[in-house]
Every structure is written in structure tokens, then in C-alpha cells.
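tool_call predict_complex ligand=NDP
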Amino acid sequence: MKVLKFGGKSLASEHTFKNVIQIIENKSKESEIVVVVSAIGDTTDILENIAELAKNNQDYQSTFNEFKERVYHKDINLEAEFQLLSKLFEGVSLIEDCTPKIKDLILSQGEIISSRVLAKQLNAAQLRSVSIDSRDFIITDDSFGNAIVDESLSKSKTQNYFNELPLKIIPIVTGFIGATQKGETTTLGRNGSNYTAALLSNFLKAEELQNYTHVDGIFTANPDWVKNAQKIEELHFEEANELANFGASILHAKTIIPLLENSTPLRILNTLNPKNAGTLISAKATDNGIKSLSLQSDVSLIQFEGRGLLGIVGVDARVFTSLANEGISIGVISQGSSERGLGFTVKQSEADKAIKALQKEFEKDLYTKDVSGISLIDDIAVLSIIGQDLSTFDKPYAALVKNKIIPILFNNTVTGKNVSILVRKHEAKKALNVIHGQIFGVAKNINLALFGHGLVGGTLIDQILATASSIEKKKNIRLNIFAIGNSKKVLLNENGIGKNWREDIKANSENYQIQDVIRFANENHLENLIAIDNTASSSFVDNYISLVQSGFDLISSNKIGNTISYSFYKELRETLKRNHKEYLYETNVGAGLPLIDTIKLLHLSGENITKIKGVFSGSLSYIFNNFSIQDRPFSTVLQEAIEKGYTEPDPREDLSGNDVGRKLLILARELDLKNEFQEIKIQNLIPEELQAIDTPAFLKGLDKLDSYFEKQKQDLVPGTVLRYVGELNGDLQEEKGFLETKLIAVPINSALGQLKGSDSLFEIYTESYGDNPIIIQGAGAGAAVTARGVFGDILRLADK
Ligand SMILES: NC(=O)C1=CN([C@@H]2O[C@H](COP(=O)(O)OP(=O)(O)OC[C@H]3O[C@@H](n4cnc5c(N)ncnc54)[C@H](OP(=O)(O)O)[C@@H]3O)[C@@H](O)[C@H]2O)C=CC1
Ligand SMILES: N[C@@H](CC=O)C(=O)O
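tool_result ok
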């Protein structure tokens, strides 16, 4: 025999009601069943509300009339129940009081009506059934509102009752209600219907209790809050009990205990998705121990502080007793070894009462200042990781801090494995997602805000969208682009921008300031934030500090951030350190080539890098590799380099030597040299009259460059070619290095002379490597390689 329990939500609409009937029909074909029901939908709340109106002498009658008119009350004679309710409400209104005893009698009608309505509909569907009033066999004491069941008496009464029932008839039993030995109606408190179902399962030795809810089972976290929460397939009773203690709303310790006697399995199922196997709770040991996250919000933290408390015995007892006397329950407790302060949580609704009780109890101590403060922090959430001990708590903790969520306090249970963390309520959803991603090997969400969607930025967005799902499979990392912005507008979508982003930007982007993006990320509780700068803008760099302070890691292909003043360079790094954030910019030198990382590692390991020289610019490499040996005007080759995406948005940034200068400076600063940009000796290849005009005008008149460069070519000694090179000379001992860029002639058969396409070539000279430099060579420019390099930086950060 199986016991099937249906909650109020399962009976709340015509659609769910049909499902309930279908489930009962299917299950009754498989085995004998007993059905336990809660009141339909919000009935309990409505009845309570009508009683409250009546008690306060307000118009209760119209709400009561509406209740009676509900559609599922139509085809059944509920005259007796409605008459009783009418009398009870009238009485409550007359005496302006609703005692717990009267309230129980009022509320019990909800379950009675529910069992009658369901039985009626089952019979109409040719499923023989009978409505059964559990007050005939669930016997309780007279603690109205939360009555204690006399289990042994109830057991024998239940068994006798069910032995008398005709076979092949489906009993539809009222949950939640019982009666005293004198026959007075009682209710069983929170989760009362589940408790009734568990008791019946035990008394009748059911093979399984199936609890039909509105969710597919128990999840690793509330799926409304954590998108990738996973259903837990199986739990041991003890684990379920642990979850129940930490606020899993579909479980209550009271409902598990009756199942332990006969080890009756409990299955949590979904009325709307009955084929799903749900979560099975049984005596079977599970492999991994549970891991689940629960969240209690609407909690307040009380801080009790006093310098005169050290060593005084009995202060804690006074705190707790004064609260106990007010019926206030305490949640998480923390006291430091100095004994000067005690922090603990209470329900927010009871916080003021708690403060008053403490102020009264410690009135004298407050006067003498032995107690220096009793303060309250509202809007706290308690996040509990069930199944977690401190041995592996480092990761979730570090992830919280990295996301700028600093727990107000945390607490671990000495027995069992639970860690509770107190955070501000507005941070709770983000905290839940961060920890969930860390401890469940499920995809970790990385939320990306991309600024600049030109050549590099646009290519990067396409690369991410094309590979996101394979990255999720291989690396358990979900890359979510929630913002794409240019110099004016931003497109925002917390669930991720998709393949049609170009059209979407046209239709849906809005003017913005950086604070709008930061606010959007906060309001949507987005975690693991990365801001990516694929602009060439110096004004965008002004946003770096606020982005870092707001919890973003940074990545940039833009070189400006690393090449403005040394003081900004330092300030940014200090801000990053203070905020536990990272800044990666591998593409700043050599596009996708692994140059910066190599230099960083060599330098960090103490290697003295004395010189770095070579062809630093991919575009200038392309231009001079081709122009030197081809009989084509300079402007044609330059136009080709622009079209291939090798140049900066304004190609004068390359031709002026500034871009090479920036690269030299970035490397110099990696070596702890404190150079400024103005100190670089740069050869500018742009004729003066073309230096000050605007970009479109310059791009229109590229042929004005031809005669100057033609002359350079004519002047070449035969067997040599033009190359634009950079050189950095420095030393560990020096404060500054010597940085120079220039156009030179090199033998055509030298390493530099042999360069092809947009290849860059870097020779890194160090003390250990002597005269044989480390050489890094490869494509030094191009949107695809650069975007790949930025992508690499994203994955590096995501892995941390
Ligand atoms: N091409 C290459 O081989 C390499 C390039 N890089 C770097 O990549 C970066 C991007 O280059 P590329 O894609 O060619 O440039 P593009 O000109 O094609 O794109 C630049 C993008 O940045 C946007 N933008 C400009 N100013 C701002 C601002 N203040 N705020 C937000 N967005 C802004 C532009 O938008 P709008 O249309 O509104 O101006 C545009 O979408 C440059 O810094 C470059 O140095 C690095 C290594 C190699
Ligand atoms: N314009 C740059 C692009 C890479 O930084 C170059 O040509 O190297």
C-alpha cells in the first residue's frame, strides 16, 4: 500500500486537479492507495483572513460569500460545512475574539472540504472513493494550533478504522487536523498535512509515502534563485532531516520522524510532472553526503557588546533567558574568546521585541556602561551549506570574497557538517549562486561585460558565442555576455546576449554611463564579473577603477590603461590588490602571442632581462615586409593592412611609432621599470602636415604618404629592406630603462629581413641566456588572433 499526499498547490486549479485525478487513477491500478490532502489552494489563508475580519468587526461576509462561490464548491453539497463556518464567524464577530480552539475548528473545514471535493470528483471519474475525516483516528492533546499527537492511541484507532473500510475504495483523508479525546478539533501546526501522511504511512505500514508537490524534488538550492540548481536523486533520512532543519520548505523534521520506525521511504514528486522520479528519501546510504544550500532571509542580527563582560559568569544565560521569556528563538550564535561581544540572529519580525527585552534585562549594565551597546542589523540572510565542513570551505569562502561579498559572520556546527554564513539580504542571491557554482562542480557562471564591438570586440563576441557550449561541457564554465557597449550605447541582458547581437544592438541598446552597467550587474545579482575593454579609448580607461571597486576583474586589448602615467599604473594595481581582482592584457604586446606571460614569469623567477628588441608592430611588419620588395605605392599597402584589421582604429597610431612605443613601455613596466611614455625615443613616420588632421581626412589622403616612403626605399643600400623596430634596454638595478623605436634598414637575409606577413618578432635577452636570446615570433596583429588572445585571458580568469 502507498500513501499519496497532495498539497494545496496541487489542488489549486482545474488543470492541477485533473493531474491529481490522473495520478490517483494510475497509482490505484498499481497498488492499494490512501490519499491525504491539504486544503485547496489558499483556503487556509482565506479562512484565517475571514476570521480576522470577523474578529475586528470588519465586513467578513463578502469575503466569505466569495469563498463559498468558488468554482470547485459548486457541484457538491457543502451546506453543513458552510453553515458551521457561518456560525463560527458570527460568533467570532460577536465576541470579537478568535480563540485557538475556534480557529482550529474554522481551519479544519478547509481540509474537510478538500477531501470531499476530491472524493466527489474521483467518483464522477468512476474511481470509487470516500472522504475520510482524520479526526476519527488522529488523537491529540489540546494544544490548539499545534497539537501533539498521541501516537500509540492514534495508531490503534487508525488501524481499526482502516480495517473496517471496504476494499477497493480509495480513502481521501483530511491532513492537518485531529481531535482531542473529548472530540474537540485540533490542528497539527506547520506542515501538518505532511505529518498526517507520515503518521498514516507508519501506522498502516505503507511501502512508500509519495508527497506530490509543485516541484520536481529537492534541489541543491532553490531553482528560482539558482538557475543551474540540480535535483538531488536520493537522500538518507538523516540528510533529509538535516535539510529540514535548515529550512528546506518541503521538508519538516516532524514529518520524517514517523517514517523512521518502519524505514518507510518518502518520495517527493511533482503533480505537474508526475513522470519525473523526484527525490527519494530512505534508509539507504548515499555516496557523497548531501550538499545543498538553504537560505533563510528576513533575519536580523543582534550585536550585544560590553567591555565589562569579560570573565563575568552568566551574561549569556541572561541574554538567552530574557529572549526565551519572550518566546523568541535564536538562530546562529557567535561569541569571540574575548567574551566582549555576542552576536546572534533572530527572526526580523521579532527583532524589536528582542531588543526591548535585552534593554530591560540589562538596564543597569547599560547605565554603568558594562554593556556598551545592543544594536540591530536588519535585512540579513543566513545561507547554510549543508554537508560542508571547514576542510574544504576555503573555496566557497574565497569565491565570496572575490565577488566582493564579505560574510558578516560564519559559523560551523561541531557535529554534522554545516556551515552557515550571514550576508546582507541584497547580496544573498549572488552569494547563493557563487557558492553553488563553487561546490557543485556544475557550470560556474562567468558574467562578461564587453566594451568595444568593432573589429576585435566583434570577433571576440562571435568566438565566445560559437564555443560557449563546448567550453561549458569541457570546463564547466558558462560564459554569459550580459553587456555589450560602445562609446554611446549598451545592450543589456542578464540571461546572456545571443547570436543576433548585432541586430539586437540596433533595436534595443540604450545610452549609458558605466554606473548603469554596474547597477545592472548588482540588481541582477550577477557573479564572477569581468569587464573587457576592446576599445582604443583613453576615456574608457577612466572607468577601470570604479569597475574594479565594483567587483569586476579586468581584461583589455586596449593598451592605453597600461601606458598613461606611472601613477595611474600603480593606483590601478593597488586597487586591484585591495579588491582581490585581476587585470589581464596578454594581447597588449604581440596580439595573441604568449609574450607578456613569458616576460612576467622570467622576471618573477629573478631572471635579469637586459634587452628586448625586434619588430613589435604587426601592421608595420606587414607594411614594410611588402612595401620593401614590391613595386607598389605605400598607400596601397597601408590600405591593405587597414583592411586586414592589422592597424589601430587610427593607423597613425602605428605610423607615428606610438603603438610600438606603448608596447615597449608595457614590457618595461612588467620589468618594474618606471618609465613614462614621454621618455620613449620614438621615430614618427608621419609627415607633419598629416599629423594634426582628423582621422577621416587622413584616411582619405593616404597617397600623400607615398613620396616620403618611396624616397626611403630609393635610399636603401641594395640587399637591404626596411623594418620598423623597437628596443628596450634595462637592468634589474635600474629605476628606468632606455626605450627606442625607429625605422631601419636590415639585410634581406637576416632574421628581421626574412619576416613575412604580419609577423612580429621579439628577441628577449637575459643574463642566463646570454647572447642567445629567447625568440618569440608569429602573427603580431589581426582581429582573429587578438580576439583569441583576449578569450585566453577570459578562460584564465574563469579558471581561478
Ligand atoms: N587589431 C589588432 O591586431 C590588435 C588590436 N588591439 C587593440 O584592440 C583594440 C580594439 O581595436 P579594434 O577592434 O581594431 O578597434 P575598432 O575601432 O574596430 O573598435 C573599437 C570599438 O570601441 C568602441 N569604443 C570607442 N570608444 C569607446 C568608449 N569610450 N567606450 C566604449 N566603447 C568605445 C567603438 O565604438 P564606437 O563605434 O562607438 O566608437 C568600437 O566599437 C584597440 O585598443 C587595439 O589597440 C590589440 C592587439 C592587436
Ligand atoms: N596595430 C597593432 C595591433 C596590435 O597591437 C599592430 O600593428 O601591432
